[in-house]
Amino acid sequence: MTNSSPRIAIVVVAGLALAAGLGGCGKGEPVATPSATATTPFTVPTSSAEPTSILSGRPSANGPVLALKMDNTNRSLPHIGLVDADVVYIQQVEGGLSRLALIYSTTIPTKVAPIRSARETDAELLPMYGPIAFGFSGSVDAVARQVKRAGLIDVSAETYGGGYARLSSRSAPYNEYAKPAKLIKQAGGSAKPKYVGFTFGALPLGGRKATGVTITYPSARITFKYKTSTGRWNYYLGGVQDTSNQGAVSASTLVIQSVKLSNTGRDDVAGNPVPKSRTIGTGKAIAIRDGRYYKLTWSRPTVSAPTRWLYQGKDFPMKAGQVWVALLDAQRTPKFTGTAS
Predict the structure, then answer these.
(1) Residues 215, 333: one domain?
(2) How far is CA 328 from CA 95, 121, 300, in A?
(3) In a domain, 23, yes or no
(4) Which pLDDT belongs to residue 311?
(5) What CA–CA distance (Å, rounded) separates 286 from 296?
(6) What pTM was computed for the model?
(7) Is the residue at 96 inside a domain?
(8) Do 329 and 212 reside in the same domain of the chain?
(9) How far apart are CA 307 and CA 299, in angstroms?
(10) Which whole-number Å values give the CA distances from 215 to 13, 21, 299, in the listed order?
(11) 159: domain CATH number?
């Protein structure tokens, strides 16, 4: 990491308390917000410690950022290269299914699969990372234009086929894989990581105990189960655990972000409306780590601004490791198991 790169300082945040329920937001639309609380302006901390990822808190240098779109149906299991991502976003797409947007920086795997197409949600979500390389299988023209206007570097299979190939062991469209190193090179200057709203630190006081949480989309059921021996939340899709030769897919921290869904005004080939998750505005969220969950609020004023995750006016400390953010319709509520004070 260069001397100009920010580094994460461990912070301890105390006094967190539980509350239930989620609320949503939309860009330019009025939303319900929590009662006024003084917020502490954020300054990216510096440290003389070893290089640490500003995106995941992992002990690694902050390399160029690459975003990739991945399928998230059971036919895509096991995911390839998913465990190396610093940040994982779950998004609702047409037909009530879900897809993943992956952010890589600290570790660049040799291949990532299966790769799928971009959506309007990506053009609003990803610009807070800066002018980064964005790989995907393809998109309709309207989305391609939005990706370009958002300042993302298009290294999709449609623009750079040399960065992709097909797995002989799987059938289309679940067999396309990306070659991340080639995509980063092709981008010719993908941005280095910057502060996007994550801070890392010790387990906060408060919250409530839980051993599992299920997030339900119209046509997808996603569950995370806490494993005490690892201190991580193992990932299940439709009741099937996602594992590979790299081990179990799991989150160090899971954030369920309540968002407003809007209609993009277009349908897929099957006639299903294509939704967009609105990630600019304010709303509520639940952060889950170390066998406990906490009520937060989130805010993101502009497309280039970070998303801040606050509790009582202070930044919530994520646990170092892979961070997952589930964008969930505000009309839906996650279900926790094994709860206790």
Answers:
(1) yes
(2) 15, 12, 16
(3) no
(4) 87
(5) 6
(6) 0.86
(7) yes
(8) yes
(9) 6
(10) 26, 13, 21
(11) 3.50.90.10
Sequential DSSP letters for 180-240 = HHHHHHHHTSPPPP---S-EEBSPPSB-EE-SEEEEEETTEEEEEEEETTTTEEEEEETTE
For residue 216, give its domain range.
199-337
Q: Among all chains, which residue has been given the structure tokens 């970070």? A: 306
Q: Where are the beta strands (DSSP E) in 268-307?
A: 273-278, 281-289, 292-300
Q: Could you report the per-residue pLDDT of 52-100, keeping only the tens digit for each?
A: 999 999 998 889 999 999 999 999 999 999 999 999 999 999 999 999 9
Token pair for 272: 């299903």
Instruction: Clarify whether residues 223 and 290 are in a common domain.
Output: yes
| 113-166 pLDDT tens trace | 999 999 999 999 999 999 999 999 999 999 999 999 999 999 999 999 999 999
Q: What is the mean pLDDT of the chain?
A: 88
> Is residue 54 a contact partner of residue 288, using CB atoms and an 8 Å limit?
no
Tokens of 87: 């940040």
Q: State how beta strands 308-311 and 314-315 pair.
A: antiparallel
Residue 39 lies in a domain: no
Q: Is the pLDDT of residue 12 over 50?
A: no
Check whether residue 96 and residue 181 sit in a common domain.
Answer: yes
Cα separations in angstroms, 177 against 97, 181, 240: 20, 12, 22
Q: Could you tell me if 167 and 293 lie in one domain?
A: no
Residue 208 phi, psi dihedral angles, 5° rounding: -140, 145
- Rounded Cα distance between 91 and 81, Å, is 18
Distances (CA, A) of 218 to 168, 193, 203: 31, 33, 33
Asked if residue 213 and residue 144 are part of one domain, the reply reads no
List, for residues 256-269, the tens digit of each pLDDT value.
999 999 999 998 88
Question: 213 is written with which tokens?
Answer: 């949480």
